[in-house]
Structures are given as structure tokens and as C-alpha cells.
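Recap from last week: sequence in, structure out.
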Amino acid sequence: MGIEEGGAAKKIIRKIACAVSETFSNYHNKHIQANITHTIEIKHRECGGTIQTTIEEIENQTNFAAKKKWLERYPDEEEPTGLFVAKIDVSEMEIDLLHAKIPTLDSILQSYGYGIYSINYTRDFSGVLDREDLVEYLCDTLDFRYQGKGTFGRFQTIDTPTILENTATVGKHVCTWVERKDGYTTRTKLYNKIVSNFEAGEVRSTMGGHLSEYVDCPNEHLRKTFFHPDVQERGCTRIEVSIYACNREYISSKTADSIVGEVFDLVSPPNRELFVVQPPKMQYRNLSEKIDRCMVVANKPQGTIYVGWYAHTKTGRIAGVCIRPTKAKVDNPKQWERAIEWSIGDFGFRNCPIFRVDILAIEEKEIVLGPLRCYAKDGNAKTILTSAKKPTQLHMDADDPSMHLPPTKYIEWTWRKSKAQIIGIGITAYSVEETPAIAEKREISTNSTKTREKRLQEIEDAAIALEWKISMEKQIAKEKEYLALENEKRKKELESIARNGKKE
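Predicted C-alpha cells:
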């Protein structure tokens, strides 16, 4: 959606919420969530990225309706200084009602200087996509093209479906392509819906994750999807088709059924199986069995404690919990320490290292860190499962997490069933012990992501080189052994010939 002057995100969301309420309150009594997914500062419009390029194309197609309204509201401004994209979740609304009320919503949003960016249609089905196999099929059989670097701006004007090379930002369980359809730009995304909840991160934050929302999903429709017998047996793939800047006449239930149905038929050829069977419990086990530690970062300058459970090696996003004590608790050394210990006890894993890093100061050119510390929980302890930003959240009537996330040696999830004491005052119910000996054997790496990846690649290359060297040495040894045997054999043959010659 549209354009907004520099301002607080809460003000933007409040305006969107007002527009949604005014449009749907008489027809839909459930809460409709809105959140900002992207913000872009405009410095040089001609040098914009993917989102800005798409917005500019939408502005052209809609005759700059949102921008014109924005300029009417702010006549003293020559140009907007930033763009934002927000998402309104209408997944639990009747689709016919939604289509009928879109013109009303669009008009109210335009009064704020906002415009409709895209309409997203989704459908879930059982089975798990194999991205590599799917990409190979689309390119080799259906003549899709694969994205080259810096080509997104040209997607708006080409008719050949183009697969995006975006696994570094979204992970390898997603396949996205862009094309022109019926005169509009469309983006089609297929992704593993179960893994998208397991894997780390939020849209606008590197810290987050939706593990708890999988087990106790607040969206009734999605909850039914997650625990449908077919999904529990085979896994779940979501088709999501986004139509950009389309006119109101094009938006209908018929359009939704048609465009999503076309994608489903496209990826379901009768002579080739592009999806595999992988139950959610198996998908979770593939993740959890690789986890044997966790980390706590206590950022005192910003008054935040992060408990990281696991990280995505491609996207760099971290799944875990964010704890924010009050400023008074942060400023009180004893209460700040108690808040850290409470975080370690409630959200750390059992019988494995729980590393702790303290950020003591954030300076212009340096972040000052305290010494690395390490803790351990009792071998029978559990870990409280919660939403990333709701560390004291209660789940009174939810299923036991172990029903859907099987326990491992180090992780057994549980819900918080009783109200937590004030953070910084209360203590954890689990036994926690500091283990200095483990921390002394390690050191904190302050490498940047790029440097770390380079170093990891060097280690991998060195390991491959060593393996190759050992393999070559073994091969050379075998060849020497073979030659020695051949020489010995030849020597014996010559000796035999010599003896036979003497006898003659």
C-alpha cells in the first residue's frame, strides 16, 4: 500500500485499522490484523530496489492516485520521503464479502494517501515441494526463465515467467516467479507452510519465529489446515498468487479460483511427481535433532534480552524470544541480573550449553562485550514455548506441545500455565547452574556476516582439500603397493626364466 511521510509506524497502522473497521465492522466481528512489512527511505528514486520498483509500476498503472491524494494532504511537501508496505490479514473473511467491500476500503485508504498495492490469494494442499525439482521442471519443460542479478525491474515488461533467485532471503523451501497475466504483474509463490513456521525470523526483524503459532495457532482457518489429517500425514504447501495494481472489475471470486487453480494444475503434471510426503513431525525432527545449544544476548544499553534457539544459515534470521524488562529493572543491577537468569531458566534448553553474551556499551565504532559465560539446566527440565515478543504469554487450553513437537535429548517444550511474576522480580522454576569451564574454552566471534561466511567457506574448502589429500595419498599408496607387487612378480618371472635357461 501507498505512500506516507516519515512518521511513527503506530500512526500508520492506526489509520489502516480505522479504514478496515469502517469498511468491515458491520459484516465481520473478528479482529483483522494489520502490520507493516516493509519500509523504504527514498533518497534517489531512480536507484530503488525490488519493492520501490514495484510500487512505481503500480503508481503508473493507477495514474498516481495514492500519491496525488498524499500531495493534497501535505501541500507543503514536494515529494514523499519514504514508502511503506503493510499487510491486512483477511484470511478468515468470506471471499465474496471481501470482494464486495474492496472499493469502499480502497476509497478510505486513498483519503489517507494510501493505495492498494496487491491482492493476495492463497490455497493450501497436502504434500511438500522439492524446490530444485520444481525449478528444473518449470525451466526445462515449460520454458520459464531463471533470474539474473539485477533483473527485477524488467519483470514488469516481460511475458516470460521468471523464477526469482531469492533463497538467501527466504530459504530453500520457497519457489517464487513473476510474470505478466491479463495485463497485470503477478507474483506466484509456493512454499512449505509448515517449515515457514518452524524456520526463524519475522518479515521486518531478524529475531522471531512462529513455532508456538504452529502448535497453538490463533487463526482458526490456519489451525484447521495445520491439523488436517492429510497435512499431518503428508505436510503442507501453500500457493500464494499476488496481483499488483489490478482494477476493481478484475477482482472476483472467479478470478481467485482461476489464477490459483491454474498454478495448481501447472505444478501437478500427470507424468511427473514434484512433491514428496514429509509429515510435520518428521520436518520438526530434522530441525530439532541438530540443535545442541542455545544463546542468550543481554543488551543492557537497549534494555533487551534475546534468547536465541536456532538460526537459519541462509537468511541469517534467528528463532527465539525477546524479553524487555522495564527501564527501572534494567537500571537496577540486581533486577537486571535476575531478569537474565529468569530468561535463561524459562527459555533455555536442558542438559546443554546455554551461552551468554553481555553487551555493555554501544559506541559509534565499537560494541563493548563482556566475557563469554555459560549455563546449564537440569537434564529433566523443559523449555517454555511462547511467541517471540510475548515471553509471559499464557496457553491455558492448548494441546501439549509434545503432541506436535516431539521431545529430543535437549528440548522438551511446555506452555506457561500460570501468570508469571514481574520480569526482574520473579525467579525461574527451573534449576540453572553456571558452568565457567565450558565458557573458558571458547571465545566470542565479532566477525561480520560476510567475514564469517568467508571463514566458514575457507574451513569447508580446507576440509575438502584435506579429504582430497588423504584420498590422493591413499590412492598413491595403493598404486605404489600395486607397482611393488608387479615388480616382485616380474622379478620372480625373470628368475624363473633364468633358472630354466641354465637347466637347458
